[in-house]
Design goal:
Layout (H helix, E strand, L loop, with lengths): L6 E7 L7 H13 L2 E9 L1 H36 L9 H6 L8 H10 L4 H4 L6 H9 L2 H6 L4 E8 L4 E6 L5 H7 L9 E3 L2 E5 L19 E5 L13 H32 L5 H4 L5 E5 L2 H5 L11 H22 L11 H5 L1
Parallel strand pairs: 1-2, 1-7, 2-3, 7-8
Antiparallel strand pairs: 3-4, 3-6, 5-6
């Protein structure tokens, strides 16, 4: 299939630590399917890392190279995290798997320490193994010179309480690290005198940059954090899980409400697209709430390769299912039931 016959989508990639391996599977399956091309990516945290690796792989060698580089990235993440604070602390932890990480001595110890010590005390040199991982794979100077895929990376300005979106010449390794800077783990990333934390606090991911792309009206959100739950959490662990999900989904839901309003006003004739500069957009979401709901918060820090592989396969399966049901809707209409999300 040649490039001109493909349907173009813009990608919105949520953050979620190790759960971002689900997005790895989604991206890989979209490339393997071969019927979709990509113009713009907005990413946060793990979503920004997937985004820059994906874009650089496409730049260097198309779909095959992007698939190869995504696997290299996640393999390096697993290797660098194997001896980190959240690695399973013993053979029994590894046997029990990601669902039992709360019992891990390493995780429990770090969780306790983070309540009394900051990364400025625990990591005074500001070391971040992800920096070496990214620099070993990506020439950011070369990436910045390309406009084949436009990148937008969200971070949170700590002192100004506002969203910062890095794009174009601003795409650096530090921008990506800022987007993924959890303040319990890392010192704030300083860029041009400003201090940044994880972008998920303000935009997870930000959809606004995608609305300005004239190449397509289609936005595909890759969902990591579950939006809905069947039961009220009643244990400390499940309460913490749900607070995390609500906090990191809130910016996305706010933007979806805004886009839903614009779509409704344009559809009903209350806004003229040409006059107001706004337009109807086709909104889509690929995810697996059932699978991701079964994962506890601490598994976002699990670097074990088998766990990452399981998320990758879940992402591929969810994408195959979505494409079977909705590929023909791309370029035609929304497939995301925004009514259910914003009602």
């Amino acid at each position: 299939m040649n490039q001109g016959s493909k349907k173009i989508v813009n990608l919105a990639l949520q953050g979620g630590g190790a759960h971002g391996a689900f997005t790895w599977g989604v991206l890989e399956q979209l490339l393997l399917d071969g019927r979709v091309s990509f113009k713009t990516i907005s990413g946060t945290s793990a979503g920004s890392m997937n985004g820059v690796v994906f874009a650089y792989g496409m730049l260097k060698g198309g779909a095959d190279k992007a698939i190869q580089m995504l696997e290299q990235f996640w393999r390096k993440v697993s290797d660098s995290g194997r001896f980190g604070a959240f690695a399973a602390s013993n053979t029994m932890d590894q046997f029990l798997g990601p669902m039992k990480m709360m019992a891990s001595g390493a995780y429990a110890g770090f969780d306790m320490m983070s309540k009394y010590f900051s990364p400025y005390q625990l990591n005074p040199l500001g070391l971040n193994p992800l920096k070496d991982v990214l620099l070993s794979l990506i020439d950011f100077d070369e990436l910045r010179k390309s406009n084949a895929i436009n990148l937008h990376i969200s971070a949170t300005d700590v002192l100004k309480s506002k969203l910062k979106i890095f794009t174009g010449a601003e795409i650096t390794v530090d921008a990506v690290l800022a987007s993924a800077c959890l303040p319990q783990l890392f010192q704030a990333v300083v860029i041009d005198g400003d201090y940044y934390w994880d972008g998920g606090f303000m935009g997870n991911p930000s959809l606004f940059p995608l609305t300005k792309c004239d190449a397509t009206k289609d936005i595909m959100i890759v969902q990591i954090d579950p939006i809905f739950r069947d039961a009220v959490p009643r244990t400390p662990e499940t309460i913490a899980d749900r607070l995390n999900e609500i906090s990191f989904n809130s910016p996305l839901l706010v933007e979806l409400r805004g886009l839903y309003l614009v779509n409704t006003l344009v559809k009903d004739g209350h806004l003229n697209e040409q006059q107001c500069g706004l337009r109807q957009l086709h909104l889509h979401m690929v995810g697996d709430e059932k699978a991701m709901s079964g994962l506890p918060l601490e598994s976002k820090f699990n670097p074990e390769w088998n766990f990452l592989q399981s998320l990758r396969e879940a992402g591929k399966a969810a994408t195959k299912k979505w494409l079977r049901a909705h590929f023909d809707d791309l370029g035609v209409k929304s497939t995301l039931d925004v009514d259910r999300l914003v009602a």
